[in-house]
Recover the amino acids of this structure.
């Protein structure tokens, strides 16, 4: 069975998430062109056919709305191929667990620098930090001890100590990326510990799934759902795969979901939702947290979020696999578009490439139209306006610009490079760097003690003056008394 839905009217971004962010959806993007919809369906069909997948379903989310869904099925006997059918999403589950952990951090119940042993008794490696677990830089073993955990009952591993052998850590902590499934089992146990012993799945349902309207995402399959299959590598025949409840390892890959629910998840990961997690924290999660492997990186990792560079675009999201299933979700934040692909076979389809291509087809054929320029809202602060314009770090000309919410932005006046950064206004009259070289640094306006006029800007001890090396300027080390001269 094949099916395509060119546009689904319902928005996926909640009113809480969209408030203050401008109009999205039909006004901003409009419906996809017929040629784009055909290209999307063809990509899905090629993926299903060349990957020899029993079924495949895909979706594109644009501007917080479901813009397209499609499905291709070799047989409708098990209901697979419909967009409301559940598939197992494997390690995409980790993004949900990471959001639960970041909620704990934002509530002040822990910090990312805390050692696991401070919060979870019986930890097999109490010295690794929560940030290291989230970013797969803990050095812990890649897989759980014992038989293949994805195909065996979770009852074989009932306590955190059952996940590892005598040497849980394979590499020095914090030094390099090393993917660890058991690390997320520990994070799930951490969530349970900080939520008074409630199962992590129940915490997820109450704190995340219900607020976001994700009613078709669950720990165990709920009809209709696809059966998982292995496809013989040399013959077009199938073998059923088991669908075990992995128990303690569940936070590493237990969830089942649909493309419609994952569309809601993609919209949330892009725009945030005040009831679950704010946009600033989500942006923090997709910031690279570990050094990339190799000279030119194509793949990286943040805090529970995979990063990728594909065809000149920076994507974030996650892929997943469990016996009988493959899943992928990739988001292009610059274009506000996400691609989702799910299939019910253990191997074969290049599911990650398919999801990325779905997003790329829309971004290439119908690039995002920028929001209209609008003047700043609210009364104008003349003192802030007076700070804008040219400033000089030594002889380097920079320009300071005023942005929304009293924010500032500094960048080199012309040409590429330079130490550009955006700054958030603080209640004490300073600004904090949000990105670039000055991320986390403090920007202060220094005034003359005699008349209160602005003397210079102090940015992490960098002194910015209104003129380049003015003799009377407050330049560290002083300026030659004769000033500038010709040869």
């Amino acid at each position: 069975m094949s099916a395509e839905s060119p546009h689904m009217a319902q928005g996926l971004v909640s009113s809480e998430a969209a408030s203050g962010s401008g109009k999205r959806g039909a006004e901003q993007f409009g419906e996809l062109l017929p040629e784009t919809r055909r290209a999307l369906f063809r990509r899905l069909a090629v993926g299903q056919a060349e990957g020899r997948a029993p079924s495949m379903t895909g979706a594109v989310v644009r501007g917080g709305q479901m813009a397209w869904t499609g499905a291709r099925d070799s047989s409708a006997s098990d209901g697979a191929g419909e967009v409301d059918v559940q598939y197992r999403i494997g390690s995409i589950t980790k993004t949900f667990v990471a959001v639960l952990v970041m909620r704990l951090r934002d509530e002040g119940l822990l910090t990312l620098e805390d050692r696991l042993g401070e919060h979870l008794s019986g930890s097999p490696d109490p010295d690794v930090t929560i940030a290291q677990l989230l970013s797969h830089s803990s050095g812990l073993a890649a897989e759980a001890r014992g038989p293949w955990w994805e195909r065996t009952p979770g009852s074989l591993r009932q306590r955190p100590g059952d996940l590892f052998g005598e040497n849980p850590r394979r590499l020095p902590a914090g030094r390099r990326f090393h993917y660890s499934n058991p690390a997320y089992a520990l994070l799930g146990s951490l969530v349970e510990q900080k939520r008074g012993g409630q199962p992590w799945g129940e915490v997820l349902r109450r704190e995340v799934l219900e607020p976001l309207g994700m009613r078709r995402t669950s720990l165990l399959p709920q009809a209709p759902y696809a059966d998982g299959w292995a496809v013989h590598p040399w013959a077009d025949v199938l073998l059923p795969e088991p669908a075990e409840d992995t128990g303690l390892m569940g936070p590493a890959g237990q969830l089942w979901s649909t493309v419609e629910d994952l569309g809601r998840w993609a919209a949330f990961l892009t725009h945030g939702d005040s009831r679950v997690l704010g946009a600033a924290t989500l942006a923090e999660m997709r910031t690279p947290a570990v050094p990339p492997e190799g000279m030119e990186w194509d793949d990286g990792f943040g805090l529970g979020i995979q990063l990728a560079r594909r065809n000149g675009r920076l994507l974030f999201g996650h892929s997943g696999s469990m016996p009988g299933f493959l899943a992928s979700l990739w988001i292009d934040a610059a274009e506000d578009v996400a691609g989702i692909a799910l299939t019910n076979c253990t191997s074969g389809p290049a599911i990650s490439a398919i999801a990325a291509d779905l997003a790329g087809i829309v971004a290439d054929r119908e690039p995002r139209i920028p929001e209209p320029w609008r003047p700043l809202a609210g009364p104008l602060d003349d003192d802030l306006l007076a700070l804008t314009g040219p400033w000089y770090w030594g002889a380097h000309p920079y320009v300071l610009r005023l942005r929304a919410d009293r924010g500032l932005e500094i960048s080199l006046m012309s040409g590429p490079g330079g130490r550009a950064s955006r700054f958030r206004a603080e209640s004490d009259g300073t600004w904090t760097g949000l990105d670039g070289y000055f991320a986390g640094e403090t920007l202060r306006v220094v005034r003359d003690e005699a008349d209160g006029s602005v003397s210079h800007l102090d940015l992490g001890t960098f002194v910015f003056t209104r003129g380049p090396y003015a003799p009377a300027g407050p330049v560290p080390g002083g300026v030659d008394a004769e000033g500038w001269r010709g040869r």
